[in-house]
Amino acid sequence: MNIKTRTLVIGAVAVVGIVAVVTRASHLQFGSRYTSPQANVAATIAGKQISIEYYAPSMHARKIMGGLVPFGEVWCTGANWATKITTEGNLEMGGLKLPAGSYSIWTLPNQNEWTLIINKQTGQFHLNYDSSRDFGRTKMNLKKLAAPVETFTIELRSDTSNKGTLALLWETTEASIPFTVVQ
């Protein structure tokens, strides 16, 4: 290797090292930025497709319930953009009779009780909740999980031919609500 090539290689290694140090220092000084990837879940129940599109944040050693997800405040049930549910069939969830269509899902978490909020608006940024567009609200079931769930997860479980469960899992909390697909 000639001296010119060696100098270029040493220079490139030095630049990479400096960039790594500066990047690490900026993360220590300003905190790292966590991303929440897109996720989706779908199920066919009673011949009707139900799908949910959401962004899935992770714990990253943070306190979630009562911390990142504050109690007593409406939460967008995910991150970035409002979680969207689309159903081909009419659903009954708690006291709500939800016609086929697309809606956003919000929740009102508390330590001992959660409320599911179905909103008629979709596509809004996670801070742009408009209660005047609510379709309705209903109570959810709460369960403490034995092991923590690192990344926020939404599940659609098929219970019988026309019944299912919508479940939200994160940290050591599962908030769920049974639903029926109405023919």
How would you summarize what this structure contains?
With 183 residues, the protein is an alpha+beta fold.
Write the layout of secondary structure elements.
Blueprint: H1 3-30, E1 38-45, E2 48-55, E3 83-87, E4 90-93, E5 96-98, E6 101-109, E7 114-119, E8 134-158, E9 163-182
Antiparallel strand pairs: 1-2, 2-3, 3-6, 4-5, 4-9, 6-7, 7-8, 8-9
Would you write up a description of this structure?
The structure is a single chain. The chain is 15% helix and 48% strand. It is of the alpha+beta class. It folds into two domains: 1-33; 38-182, no CATH class. A nine-stranded antiparallel sheet has the order 1-2-3-6-7-8-9-4-5, with no helix packed on it. A hairpin with a 4-residue loop joins strand 6 and strand 7. The chain is globular.
**What summary fits the major beta sheet?**
9 strands, antiparallel
Q: What is the radius of gyration computed over CA atoms, rounded to a whole number of angstroms?
A: 22 Å
**Poorly predicted runs of 5 or more residues:** 12-31
Q: Termini separation (Å)?
A: 77 Å
Proportion in helices: 10-25%
What average pLDDT do the residues reach?
A: 88
Given helix and strand content, the structural type is alpha+beta
**Could you state the order of secondary-structure elements as H and E?**
HEEEEEEEEE
As laid out across the biggest beta sheet, the strand order is 1-2-3-6-7-8-9-4-5
